[in-house]
């Protein structure tokens, strides 16, 4: 069994394909011109007709909305105070401190996204170099 890895057609290429298609070129001629399959041209044209744009849609649903600044600040404060705080604990403090209500409480995965993407925190543990190893005698 072989696996086919699809190459993504770039946005400028998709725009040129739609322009040629709008001028009346056939899918076969466009495919030959760009070195892609006729089926790919058909998919690009079909997606354009269906969506009204050529932009990619992220698979799996809607894109994540930016969290409100007060929520991000509260999560950052929690992680600075106690780096081992879990997402469930952060959810509890957001509710207890009345930063959020149950209706707008971020999910655990969203809290993880905020920590990783918005705050640029990693799970890498920091190591401390002992001061004794930096003395002149040891060096």
UniProtKB/TrEMBL annotation:
SUPFAM superfamilies noted in UniProt: Homeodomain-like
Keywords: Paired box
Coiled-coil ranges per UniProt: none
SMART domains (alphabetical): PAX
InterPro entries associated with the record: Homeodomain-like_sf, Paired_dom, Tscrpt_reg_LuxR_C, WH-like_DNA-bd_sf
Keyword Cytoplasm on entry: no
Keyword field contains GTP-binding: no
GO molecular function: DNA binding
PROSITE patterns assigned to the protein according to its UniProt record, in alphabetical order: HTH_LUXR_1, PAIRED_2
BP-aspect Gene Ontology terms: regulation of DNA-templated transcription
Name assigned to this protein: Paired box Pax-6-like
Lineage: Eukaryota, Metazoa, Cnidaria, Anthozoa, Octocorallia
